[in-house]
Design brief:
This protein has 233 residues and is an alpha+beta fold. 51% of the residues lie in helices and 17% in strands. The mean pLDDT is 88.
Length: 233
């Protein structure tokens, strides 16, 4: 009996030691994995935000869906200004501006161009795809078309897109709004369940007084204008 008792005691000690170590390492591992994943997701959301800003400049409103954004990346055109030469302090002091200098150059008047020292001043506008202008340095075209998908999602899920507009009751001005994001469950759902529950509970408490609650990563808002700020910023 003493031998059996000793064996059971040893087993109990091992189990207790394992549980103690696990109670420490599990939250640490969860936080490390979450941080690594969110770094990737934040980059995707930042790229999507940049594309949305250009979409609004060209169309007057934000892109309402992931599929339309992909089409805009691949087929949308945006102006690209190629700049050559800059105005000196003396030229600026003499009243030249980018617009007036460009008007002189475009006039073709050689005398006026020389008098104003604009022989090497050029501003040429060409049109390139949104992909070429914003994303070509980071992604291949196929990779750029995948930025609407949430990294680390168990299933191939897209970021959630939502658009709205805010009307100022005083001025009558209408402001387009957009929000794009993904929830914790989507990109952390395969990790320790209890740690995920703890994270969401903590976030609920932090956001208790906020009208616009969101458990995950997101930029923008369809409730208020926040300059498309990310909730990680």
């Amino acid at each position: 009996m003493k031998t059996v008792f000793r064996i059971l005691l040893c087993v109990a000690i091992v189990i207790m030691a394992y549980l103690c170590v696990t109670s420490i390492t599990t939250p640490i591992k969860f936080d490390e994995t979450r941080a690594a994943r969110e770094k990737v997701i934040i980059q995707k959301l930042t790229d999507i935000r940049n594309v949305q800003i250009e979409y609004k400049k060209l169309k007057g409103h934000y892109c309402p869906s992931a599929d339309q954004l992909v089409d805009f990346i691949e087929n949308g055109k945006m102006p690209l200004v190629l700049k050559e030469g800059t105005l000196t302090d003396e030229q600026l002091k003499n009243g030249l501006t980018e617009e007036s200098a460009l008007a002189i150059v475009r006039s073709g008047n050689a005398k006026a161009i020389a008098e104003n020292g604009l022989e090497n001043f050029r501003r040429d506008t060409s049109f390139v795809t949104v992909y070429e202008a914003l994303l070509a340095e980071k992604y291949t075209l196929d990779e750029a078309k995948e930025i609407v998908y949430v990294p680390f999602a168990k299933n191939k899920e897209k970021f959630m897109f939502d658009t709205a507009s805010y009307t100022n009751t005083t001025t009558g001005n209408v402001t387009p709004l957009v929000q794009v994001g993904t929830e914790y469950d989507t990109y952390l759902g395969d990790l320790n369940h209890q740690q995920l529950v703890n994270l969401k509970d903590m976030e609920r408490k932090l956001q208790e007084k906020k009208e616009d609650k969101f458990l995950g990563l997101r930029f923008g808002s369809v409730i208020e204008s926040n300059n498309n700020a990310g909730n990680w910023e």
